[in-house]
UniProtKB/TrEMBL annotation:
The keyword Nuclease does not apply. This is Rieske (2Fe-2S) protein. Residues 5-106 form the Rieske domain. Pfam families: Rieske. Keywords: 2Fe-2S, Iron, Iron-sulfur, Metal-binding. It comes from the Bacteria. The keyword Protease does not apply.
Length: 113
């Protein structure tokens, strides 16, 4: 089912910031970078679990990559591709999003089981 869900206002995600949003058992990461917004399923392709240990903590120390806290995989913010770590060459699952009247809406994606 491809129902749209509102994440938040676009203005609530600051440049260079990542935030997480829960929808039941599903979780979405939103990152703002260089004026663009990227949204992914909070699901690491290494073990099929969430990336973060703490709320909204998805970036590495230099804030250049999305990072999985479990084993340190690094993912390019723009593509979701894993460039370092145990799932190198795999990628985060993109979540389609739209901006409507200043709000971010996503179509939830089920990760593989
Ligand atoms: S679960 Fe993400 S790197 Fe291992």
């Amino acid at each position: 089912m491809s129902e749209a869900h509102r994440l938040c206002a676009l203005a609530e995600i600051e440049e260079g910031q990542a935030r997480g949003f829960e929808f039941g058992h599903r979780s979405v990461i939103a990152v703002a970078r260089d004026g663009n917004l990227y949204t992914y399923v909070n699901w690491c392709p290494h073990l099929g679990i969430g990336l973060n240990f703490f709320p909204d903590e998805f970036l590495d120390q230099e804030r250049q990559f999305l990072m999985c806290a479990n084993h340190g995989a690094l993912f390019e913010i723009e593509t979701g591709e894993c460039v370092s770590g145990p799932c190198q060459g795999e990628a985060l699952l993109p979540v389609p999003h739209q901006i409507r009247e200043g709000d971010i809406w996503v179509t939830l994606v089920e990760p593989p089981t």
